[in-house]
Amino acid sequence: MEESLQPVLQTVVCPKPKKKTGKLSIKLNKKNEEMLSKGIRKYLRLIKIANEKALNESDTSNVINDMLNEIRGYDKMEDITTEYKIRNQFCDYGVKINNKLNFLIEVKAITIDLNDNHLFQANSYASTKGVKRVVLTNLKERRIYHLSFGSKIDDKLVLSIDFLQETPKEILEKAKYLHKESFIKKHIEQVYQQKIATSKDNFKKALLSNSVIKKIQSELKTISGVKVPETEIQNIIKGLF
Question: What's the Cα-to-Cα distance from 34 to each of 43, 65, 70, 172, rounded to whole Å?
């Protein structure tokens, strides 16, 4: 039964293959696009050199600061606060948009791989300020997380960039989401909402809905000539998850 279900699901969920979607592609204004494209080429070279020299955390942070100002559109005086104070601790950067704290950045040395402990540290800062976005970076990698606050902090990776492994084109398309203009237009929020909409739980709910179950039942009957009980179809789908 499981073997016969896959073509049925393809028929129900995506009956006609269409042009690939879901690629990260947004538009910034021409000036910002050109500034970002030129800056990415410059900083890709610098990041490779920094990796070879194994920059310490302080020097890594200095490069991050320059990138925020030079190619991402943030004003050093108005938008960026280094060593952002949160109670008795300091996060590496607090970034404001329209004078409102928009996201926090936690920086690690380029020689250190990002891990869950770093995320926990950034999350603790963010929860204190009620900030829903944090960026983890060691210069060669960026990770943007969306946080939800309840009985516990729920973090979801929204976007990641690997400056040493991905192509310049891939890096540019993703880097647009970190630009000030993009944050103002809430592009990263749209990516987050899409990830939520296409989550495993939502797919499961969609496949177990009455309309989809009946469609699968109909397709199975067309294929096999047998009317499979709805409960059996539901059990098979649940088993897939």
Answer: 14, 20, 12, 11
